[in-house]
Structures are given as structure tokens and as C-alpha cells.
Amino acid sequence: MIRNLILQVVFFVIVFNVLSWFRERSMLATDVQMPLNTYQVEQLNGDKRYVQAQGKTTVVYFFAPWCQICNLSIENLEAIHQQNSNIDIMAIALDYESRESVIDFAKRHQLTFPMAYGTPEVKIAFKVKAYPSYYILNKDNSIVGKSLGYSTETGLFLRTL
């Protein structure tokens, strides 16, 4: 009985990791240092910001306001932002119908971290092909983690360690 349970858990872990690898293989590789001061986006408040780490671990979250998985997972990102001041969050909207739809998304979820309007250049540079897509950048602006699809609050936090 115990042996059977252990085999099932091992099988599940292997299948999960293979599926994750398969989904994420088209994303940027980890351990790649992103160029500094290259990809600039406009934040919802009108300020400009580069898509890069600001001296601490940064989660770059690419989303679309119409994406149902994004609507489910964004609150996990907000919880991390509220509980961890040593982690920077930057959400970048792509493939949005209008700027108002992005603002409505932020208001509906009561988001307090920086959000920006993405550009086709940023989408291509970060190889975003599905939503949500996440990259974890260390303080040196190197990609140390990535994910595609729904992530739990715990899963997101563990990727930032």
C-alpha cells in the first residue's frame, strides 16, 4: 500500500515536471542576463519604467485582461506583493482591447503593485506566447525562474527564493 502510494506520487511529480518543461520550453532560458535599459513600458500612472530588476528579486508578470487564468492568479501575485517587501512585482498587460480594460482589471482586483501597458516589442523580446507568463529576475537582472499558466501564491513565492 505505502509502496504503491509512493510510486503514484513519484509518477505524478515526473509527469508534472515533464508537462511544465514542455509548456515552458518556448520561453527565455534561465540564467540569461537581460539587457539593462532596453525595454521601456508606460505604467498606468503615465510614468515610464524599464522591464528590469530594480536592485531586488522581481517578478515580471505578463497578462491579458480578458484571460481567465490571469483573473484567477493575479490575486496570488497581489498577496506576495503585500507580504514580501523584498520582492518587486511588475505586471505588464499585452493583447489588451483598450487601455481602459487594463485599468478596469487593476481596479477590479484592487492591485497595488506597478502595472504597465506592454508593447509588441516587449512581447517578442520576452517570448510571451500564452497568458499568464512569469519571469523571475534576480537583483542582477538575470532570469532565475519562469512559469506559464496558473501559479499558486506558494508556488510563486518558492520560485523567488
Q: How would you summarize what this structure contains?
A:
This protein is an alpha/beta fold and 161 residues long. It has 5 helices and 7 strands.
Provide the CATH architecture.
3-Layer(aba) Sandwich
Question: Might you state the CATH topology name?
Answer: Glutaredoxin
Q: CATH top level?
A: Alpha Beta
CA-to-CA gap between the ends?
Answer: 35 Å
Number of domains: 1
Structural class: alpha/beta
- Rg over CA atoms, rounded to whole Å, is 16 Å
The arrangement of helices and strands along the chain is: HEEEHEHEHEEH
Strand content: 15-25%
**Helical amount among residues, as a percent range?**
25-40%
Question: Strands of the largest sheet, in order across it?
Answer: 2-1-5-4-3-6-7
Number of helices: 5
Number of strand segments: 7
Largest sheet: 7 strands, mixed
Average pLDDT over all residues: 85
- Which term fits the overall shape? globular
Low-confidence stretches: none
In CATH, the homologous superfamily goes by the name: Glutaredoxin
Quaternary state reads single chain
How is this structure best described in words?
There is one protein chain. The chain is an alpha/beta fold and 161 residues long. It has one domain (2-160): Glutaredoxin. Helix content is 39%, strand content 22%. The protein has a 7-stranded mixed sheet with strand order 2-1-5-4-3-6-7. Strand 1 and strand 2 form a beta hairpin. It is globular, with a radius of gyration of 16 Å. The N and C termini lie far apart (35 Å).
